[in-house]
Amino acid sequence: MGDVKTVTVRDATPADLPAVAAIYTHYVLRTTITFNTQVRTPREWIERFETQIATGRYHLVVAELDGVVAGYTETQRFRPKPAYDRSLELSIYVAPDATGAGLGGALYGELLGRLEADERFHRAYSIIALPNDASIAFHERWGFVHRGTLTEAGHKFGRYLDVAYYERAL
User: Fold this and answer.
1) Domain holding 37: CATH number?
2) For the chain, how many structural domains are there in total?
3) DSSP state of 144
4) Which helix (H) or strand (E) holds 146?
5) pLDDT at 135 over 80
6) Which structural domain range is residue 35 located in?
């Protein structure tokens, strides 16, 4: 019988930012899942937390696997114009050695439950760099619907990449 892992989902604290940054840095440096090409500095993580998360408007939720932060999901402004304020963009990242442990489902279950109860928000969007069949299947399981694809919208690691827009009513 395999080891049973304990998953805990909770709001992030400033003390979690180094672990969150380490997870994200992997995806920035080694994948096309994010179009960021520069690693966020510790100061940038702290400023984002203080100005967007601590105010209560946006979310940063972490998943611990046996007491260690191994994944997170966050919300942020979808677009900068005021008419978009009732829409959110969601992102989710799981440490490479923790994939398949159910963290993604635990994180989205918690976050989407919160968002559905929050009357400030009407729609959630996930922008998926392609190809990424696993992310598409994951988002569709959570009720996201494909709304369009932008071809060659990004350029990373010497190649052009498409992005798919997925939407979910809250």
Assistant:
1) 3.40.630.30
2) 1
3) -
4) strand 145-156
5) yes
6) 7-121
